[in-house]
Known about the structure:
Number of helices: 6
Distance between the termini: 39 Å
Shape: globular
Radius of gyration: 21 Å
Helix content: 25-40%
Largest sheet: 6 strands, parallel
Oligomer: single chain
Strand order of the largest sheet: 2-5-1-6-7-8
Strand content: 15-25%
Order of helices and strands: EHEHEEHEEEEHEEHH
Amino acid sequence: MVPVICVIGRSNSGKTLLMKQLIADLKERRYRVAAIKHSRHISDSDIPGKDTWNYSQAGSDLVGLSSPGHVSLTMKADSDPHLAEIVRLIGPDFDVILAEGFKLSSMPKIHVFRDGIDDELLCSEEDLIAVVADKQMPFQVPLFSPRDISGLVGLIEIRILEAKEPEMVMLYANGKSIPTTGFVRHMFAQTLRGMLSSLKDVPPDLRSIDLSIRFSDPDAHPSDAEER
């Protein structure tokens, strides 16, 4: 799956500023970046009077807004979605996904600390790849000054981006992310590549494959369909 890095910290610790700086530096290095934020604030689709709000009130499960150079989608959720579910919606066409918040997820995390704000760790130390602070911290991970964005991005490149496997395979069943081994991912990728190579309209410089299967009747078996 696309590498995901969470930026976490207390309120007003500088998470959003760090997100902006990381995005800018990664874009300068020509990476394709997606960014998401966990928030309890309402979106335009929840503001009465907006067209998107009217669509949502009418019962639409997904509302889209398209304008020149911009597309936004808002989808209803029964609960606070897990980060893996959101990553599935974003899709595979990015080099890295930066997520502000999601401290309870199992994704790698960068923890931001600020003087005068509680120094308590908000996640398991095992999930940390770096800490951003202006003072020494008691954690066994690299420490970066808030001004050393280049150094932090360099660590992200070495630890996360350059460690990606040749085939990036994302597998979901009923919307749930399914962990796979390197062997299974390689088998999926090479088997599909081989099958598609015989089809007429498949480009020779194949870079990605998007395959989605929906069963209209989950309880039906192929043999049942043949009998009918």
